[in-house]
Protein backbone atom coordinates (compact mmCIF):
# COMPACT_ATOMS: atom_id res chain seq x y z
CA UNK A 1 0.00 0.00 0.00
CA UNK A 2 2.83 2.40 0.85
CA UNK A 3 4.56 1.69 -2.46
CA UNK A 4 1.32 2.33 -4.35
CA UNK A 5 0.58 5.57 -2.48
CA UNK A 6 4.07 7.02 -2.88
CA UNK A 7 4.20 5.95 -6.54
CA UNK A 8 0.82 7.57 -7.19
CA UNK A 9 1.94 10.77 -5.43
CA UNK A 10 5.11 11.01 -7.53
CA UNK A 11 3.16 10.37 -10.74
CA UNK A 12 0.58 12.97 -9.75
CA UNK A 13 3.15 15.77 -9.43
CA UNK A 14 5.24 14.75 -12.44
CA UNK A 15 2.96 13.14 -15.03
CA UNK A 16 -0.32 15.00 -14.58
CA UNK A 17 0.80 18.61 -14.16
CA UNK A 18 3.64 20.98 -13.32
CA UNK A 19 3.71 20.46 -9.54
CA UNK A 20 7.14 18.82 -9.80
CA UNK A 21 8.61 22.23 -10.66
CA UNK A 22 8.08 23.21 -7.01
CA UNK A 23 10.71 20.67 -5.99
CA UNK A 24 13.11 19.86 -8.85
CA UNK A 25 14.37 21.22 -12.16
CA UNK A 26 12.26 20.59 -15.26
CA UNK A 27 14.88 18.23 -16.71
CA UNK A 28 14.35 15.73 -13.89
CA UNK A 29 10.71 15.10 -14.82
CA UNK A 30 11.39 11.87 -16.81
CA UNK A 31 13.21 10.39 -13.81
CA UNK A 32 10.30 11.22 -11.53
CA UNK A 33 7.86 9.57 -13.94
CA UNK A 34 10.10 6.49 -14.10
CA UNK A 35 10.47 6.35 -10.31
CA UNK A 36 6.74 6.73 -9.71
CA UNK A 37 5.94 4.05 -12.26
CA UNK A 38 8.43 1.59 -10.74
CA UNK A 39 7.11 2.20 -7.21
CA UNK A 40 3.52 1.65 -8.35
CA UNK A 41 4.47 -1.53 -10.25
CA UNK A 42 6.33 -2.89 -7.23
CA UNK A 43 3.26 -2.21 -5.10
CA UNK A 44 1.01 -4.03 -7.55
CA UNK A 45 3.46 -6.95 -7.76
CA UNK A 46 3.52 -7.31 -3.99
CA UNK A 47 -0.28 -7.15 -3.87
CA UNK A 48 -0.50 -9.89 -6.51
CA UNK A 49 1.99 -12.11 -4.64
CA UNK A 50 0.10 -11.63 -1.38
CA UNK A 51 -3.24 -12.45 -3.03
CA UNK A 52 -1.72 -15.57 -4.65
CA UNK A 53 -0.30 -16.78 -1.33
CA UNK A 54 -3.63 -16.18 0.40
CA UNK A 55 -5.44 -18.13 -2.33
CA UNK A 56 -3.17 -21.11 -1.76
CA UNK A 57 -3.77 -20.93 2.01
CA UNK A 58 -0.12 -20.39 2.78
CA UNK A 59 -1.15 -18.30 5.54
CA UNK A 60 -4.91 -18.24 5.98
CA UNK A 61 -6.95 -15.98 3.78
CA UNK A 62 -7.30 -13.63 6.73
CA UNK A 63 -3.53 -13.11 6.79
CA UNK A 64 -2.94 -15.32 9.90
CA UNK A 65 -1.11 -18.61 10.21
CA UNK A 66 -3.37 -21.11 12.03
CA UNK A 67 -2.10 -23.98 14.14
CA UNK A 68 -4.09 -26.95 15.30
CA UNK A 69 -6.41 -26.61 18.31
CA UNK A 70 -4.86 -28.14 21.42
CA UNK A 71 -1.34 -27.39 20.22
CA UNK A 72 0.48 -25.87 23.20
CA UNK A 73 1.88 -23.22 20.83
CA UNK A 74 -1.53 -22.52 19.29
CA UNK A 75 -1.93 -18.84 18.56
CA UNK A 76 -1.71 -16.29 15.85
CA UNK A 77 1.31 -14.84 14.10
CA UNK A 78 1.16 -11.50 12.41
CA UNK A 79 3.50 -11.57 9.43
CA UNK A 80 2.21 -8.18 8.36
CA UNK A 81 3.48 -6.46 11.52
CA UNK A 82 1.52 -4.51 14.12
CA UNK A 83 -1.60 -2.68 13.02
CA UNK A 84 -0.18 0.62 14.23
CA UNK A 85 2.25 0.39 11.29
CA UNK A 86 -0.63 1.50 9.07
CA UNK A 87 -0.02 4.99 10.46
CA UNK A 88 2.95 5.06 8.08
CA UNK A 89 0.39 5.44 5.30
CA UNK A 90 -0.71 8.86 6.57
CA UNK A 91 2.31 10.83 5.21
CA UNK A 92 1.95 9.08 1.86
CA UNK A 93 -1.77 9.94 1.71
CA UNK A 94 -0.97 13.54 2.66
CA UNK A 95 1.67 13.74 -0.10
CA UNK A 96 -0.83 12.37 -2.60
CA UNK A 97 -3.73 14.64 -1.60
CA UNK A 98 -1.92 17.79 -0.42
CA UNK A 99 1.42 18.33 -2.22
CA UNK A 100 3.64 20.78 -0.29
CA UNK A 101 3.83 24.31 -1.73
CA UNK A 102 6.94 25.81 -3.28
CA UNK A 103 9.50 27.32 -0.94
CA UNK A 104 8.68 30.93 -0.02
CA UNK A 105 9.40 33.71 2.42
CA UNK A 106 10.18 31.38 5.35
CA UNK A 107 13.03 29.74 3.42
CA UNK A 108 14.27 32.98 1.89
CA UNK A 109 14.53 34.65 5.29
CA UNK A 110 17.05 32.00 6.35
CA UNK A 111 19.28 32.33 3.33
CA UNK A 112 21.92 35.05 3.70
CA UNK A 113 23.25 36.49 0.48
CA UNK A 114 27.00 36.09 0.07
CA UNK A 115 28.74 39.11 -1.35
CA UNK A 116 32.32 40.20 -1.90
CA UNK A 117 34.13 42.93 -3.82
CA UNK A 118 35.90 40.21 -5.80
CA UNK A 119 32.76 40.03 -8.01
CA UNK A 120 32.90 43.72 -9.00
CA UNK A 121 33.43 44.39 -12.71
CA UNK A 122 31.74 45.44 -15.93
CA UNK A 123 28.79 43.53 -17.36
CA UNK A 124 27.70 42.99 -20.98
CA UNK A 125 25.43 45.72 -22.44
CA UNK A 126 21.70 45.39 -21.80
CA UNK A 127 19.15 45.17 -24.64
CA UNK A 128 17.64 48.44 -25.81
CA UNK A 129 14.05 49.41 -25.01
CA UNK A 130 12.11 50.11 -21.84
CA UNK A 131 10.67 48.65 -19.74
CA UNK A 132 13.37 46.01 -19.63
CA UNK A 133 12.36 42.60 -18.25
CA UNK A 134 15.08 41.14 -16.04
CA UNK A 135 15.43 38.09 -13.86
CA UNK A 136 15.87 39.03 -10.23
CA UNK A 137 19.36 37.51 -10.06
CA UNK A 138 20.46 39.52 -13.13
CA UNK A 139 19.17 42.76 -11.62
CA UNK A 140 20.73 42.02 -8.21
CA UNK A 141 24.12 41.16 -9.73
CA UNK A 142 24.28 44.33 -11.81
CA UNK A 143 22.96 46.52 -9.00
CA UNK A 144 25.49 45.23 -6.48
CA UNK A 145 28.59 44.55 -8.59
CA UNK A 146 28.46 46.42 -11.92
CA UNK A 147 31.13 49.10 -11.97
CA UNK A 148 29.74 50.31 -15.29
CA UNK A 149 26.34 51.20 -13.74
CA UNK A 150 24.43 49.67 -16.67
CA UNK A 151 21.08 49.89 -14.81
CA UNK A 152 21.22 53.66 -14.49
CA UNK A 153 18.40 55.57 -16.28
CA UNK A 154 16.59 52.36 -17.27
CA UNK A 155 12.97 51.39 -16.61
CA UNK A 156 12.93 47.84 -15.28
CA UNK A 157 10.30 45.15 -14.77
CA UNK A 158 10.78 42.32 -12.27
CA UNK A 159 8.44 39.43 -11.42
CA UNK A 160 8.93 37.60 -8.13
CA UNK A 161 7.27 36.89 -4.77
CA UNK A 162 7.02 39.14 -1.72
CA UNK A 163 8.88 38.82 1.56
CA UNK A 164 8.78 41.22 4.51
CA UNK A 165 11.58 42.82 6.50
CA UNK A 166 11.76 45.02 9.57
CA UNK A 167 10.12 48.44 9.84
CA UNK A 168 7.72 47.96 6.93
CA UNK A 169 10.50 47.07 4.45
CA UNK A 170 9.54 44.56 1.80
CA UNK A 171 11.41 42.68 -0.88
CA UNK A 172 11.02 41.00 -4.21
CA UNK A 173 12.48 37.54 -3.68
CA UNK A 174 13.30 34.57 -5.88
CA UNK A 175 14.77 31.21 -4.91
CA UNK A 176 17.44 29.74 -7.18
CA UNK A 177 18.06 26.01 -7.46
CA UNK A 178 20.81 23.95 -9.05
CA UNK A 179 19.05 20.58 -8.82
CA UNK A 180 16.05 20.64 -6.49
CA UNK A 181 14.39 22.64 -3.72
CA UNK A 182 16.82 21.21 -1.16
CA UNK A 183 19.70 23.35 -2.51
CA UNK A 184 17.70 26.57 -2.95
CA UNK A 185 19.37 29.92 -2.28
CA UNK A 186 17.57 33.26 -2.07
CA UNK A 187 18.03 36.48 -4.01
CA UNK A 188 16.11 39.56 -2.88
CA UNK A 189 15.66 43.20 -3.88
CA UNK A 190 14.22 45.91 -1.64
CA UNK A 191 11.21 47.71 -3.11
CA UNK A 192 10.68 51.38 -2.30
CA UNK A 193 7.81 53.75 -2.92
CA UNK A 194 4.94 51.20 -2.89
CA UNK A 195 2.76 49.57 -0.25
CA UNK A 196 3.79 46.06 0.74
CA UNK A 197 1.58 43.20 -0.52
CA UNK A 198 1.04 40.11 1.62
CA UNK A 199 4.07 37.79 2.02
CA UNK A 200 4.37 35.08 -0.66
CA UNK A 201 2.21 37.11 -3.08
CA UNK A 202 3.58 37.06 -6.63
CA UNK A 203 3.87 40.52 -8.19
CA UNK A 204 5.27 42.29 -11.23
CA UNK A 205 7.01 45.52 -10.25
CA UNK A 206 7.95 48.26 -12.70
CA UNK A 207 10.46 50.85 -11.56
CA UNK A 208 14.06 52.08 -11.63
CA UNK A 209 17.24 51.12 -9.86
CA UNK A 210 17.92 52.94 -6.59
CA UNK A 211 21.74 53.25 -6.35
CA UNK A 212 23.35 53.07 -2.92
CA UNK A 213 26.92 52.42 -1.87
CA UNK A 214 29.83 51.60 -4.11
CA UNK A 215 29.72 48.33 -6.07
CA UNK A 216 30.65 45.35 -3.93
CA UNK A 217 30.27 47.19 -0.62
CA UNK A 218 27.97 46.13 2.21
CA UNK A 219 25.83 49.22 1.55
CA UNK A 220 25.05 47.98 -1.96
CA UNK A 221 23.28 44.87 -0.65
CA UNK A 222 20.44 44.16 -0.85
CA UNK A 223 19.87 46.13 -4.06
CA UNK A 224 16.89 48.50 -4.17
CA UNK A 225 14.21 49.37 -6.74
CA UNK A 226 12.07 52.54 -6.78
CA UNK A 227 8.65 51.21 -7.80
CA UNK A 228 6.24 53.06 -10.08
CA UNK A 229 3.73 50.21 -10.47
CA UNK A 230 3.00 46.95 -8.64
CA UNK A 231 0.68 44.34 -10.15
CA UNK A 232 -0.39 41.10 -8.46
CA UNK A 233 -0.14 37.97 -10.62
CA UNK A 234 -0.77 34.21 -10.12
CA UNK A 235 2.16 32.06 -9.02
CA UNK A 236 4.01 30.88 -12.16
CA UNK A 237 4.20 27.14 -12.91
CA UNK A 238 7.98 27.21 -12.39
CA UNK A 239 8.64 29.36 -9.30
CA UNK A 240 12.44 29.00 -9.23
CA UNK A 241 15.39 30.35 -11.16
CA UNK A 242 18.00 27.89 -12.36
CA UNK A 243 21.54 28.47 -11.13
TrEMBL record:
Listed Basic and acidic residues bias regions: 63-76
Keyword annotations of the record: Membrane, Transmembrane, Transmembrane helix
Name of this protein: TIGR03943 family protein
Organism of provenance: Streptomyces sanyensis
Pfam family, one: DUF1980_C
Domain spans labelled DUF1980: 154-240
Domain of life: Bacteria
Entry annotated with the keyword Nucleotide-binding: no
Transmembrane portions of the chain: 32-51
Region (Disordered): 56-79
Keyword Signal: no
Amino acid sequence: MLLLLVGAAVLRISLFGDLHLRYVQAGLRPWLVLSGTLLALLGLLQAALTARAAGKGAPGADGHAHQAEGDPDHGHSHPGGPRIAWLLALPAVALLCFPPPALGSYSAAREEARRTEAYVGTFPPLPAGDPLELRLSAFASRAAYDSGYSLRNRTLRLTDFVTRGDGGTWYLTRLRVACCAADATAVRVEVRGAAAPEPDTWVTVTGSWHPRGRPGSAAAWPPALDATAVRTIPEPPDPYEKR
